């Protein structure tokens, strides 16, 4: 049960427009965005950042959702684990591979460059005090461009922040399963 009321029908026109856009892109408005609707400017900012990183960008959706899943698993965030698992399966990733990403990420089926970016994003979440120069160098050696490196770090930041918000607010992925 959420620790704050989730907005089902926004009163503000801008929030209604954002909900319509979110529903169009994702098929439903997840609880996290319903919580952010308590602060419409924050809903808008987070939706735009989500779109820029998770929907658009230069990295494959499968790689970004894989990053989201392993970061959510590392953060013990059931809400994030659920959403990234479902999205990966909706992208055509076999459920066994989804589980492998979650529990055995050193043996996933990404290219060497993708694995390096995946490792960088995970490291940024789990070891924020280690600036990861060696991981950036390894990714570059495998052909990663600067925009890909920055996007991987952006996904890490976004997912970690969403994980913390979902956990603190007590968002239950079960509510989103019912929609």
List keywords for this structure.
single chain; 179 residues; mainly alpha; 10 helices; 70% helix
Termini separation: 15 Å
Shape by Cα distribution = globular
- SSE order in H/E notation? HHHHHHHHHH
Strand content of the residues, in percent? under 5%
Mean pLDDT rating: 94
The number of helical runs is 10
The low-confidence parts are none
User: Which percent bin holds the helix content?
Assistant: 55-70%
Tell me about the biggest sheet? Answer: none
Number of strands: 0
Q: What would you call the structural class?
A: mainly alpha
How would you sum up this structure, described in words?
- This protein is an all-alpha fold.
- It is 70% helix and 0% strand.
- The chain contains ten helices and no strands.
- The two termini are 15 Å apart.
- The mean pLDDT is 94.
List the topology elements.
Layout (H helix, E strand, L loop, with lengths): L12 H14 L4 H6 L3 H16 L5 H14 L3 H13 L4 H9 L8 H15 L6 H9 L4 H24 L3 H5 L2
How would you briefly describe this protein structure?
The protein is 70% helix and 0% strand. It has 179 residues and is an all-alpha fold.
């Amino acid at each position: 049960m959420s620790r704050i009321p989730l907005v089902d029908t926004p009163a503000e026109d801008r929030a209604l427009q954002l909900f319509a856009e979110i529903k169009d892109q994702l098929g439903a408005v997840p609880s996290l965005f319903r919580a952010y609707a308590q602060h419409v400017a924050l809903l808008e900012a987070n939706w735009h950042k989500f779109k820029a990183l998770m929907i658009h960008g230069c990295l494959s959706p499968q790689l970004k959702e894989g990053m989201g899943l392993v970061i959510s698993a590392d953060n013990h965030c059931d809400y994030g684990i659920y959403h990234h698992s479902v999205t990966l399966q909706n992208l055509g990733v076999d459920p066994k591979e989804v589980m492998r990403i979650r529990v055995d990420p050193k043996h996933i089926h990404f290219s060497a460059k993708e694995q390096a970016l995946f490792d960088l994003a995970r490291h940024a979440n789990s070891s924020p005090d280690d600036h990861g120069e060696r991981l950036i160098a390894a990714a570059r050696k495998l052909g990663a461009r600067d925009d890909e490196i920055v996007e991987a770090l952006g996904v890490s930041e976004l997912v970690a922040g969403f994980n913390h918000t979902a956990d603190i607010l007590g968002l239950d992925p079960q509510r989103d399963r019912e929609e």
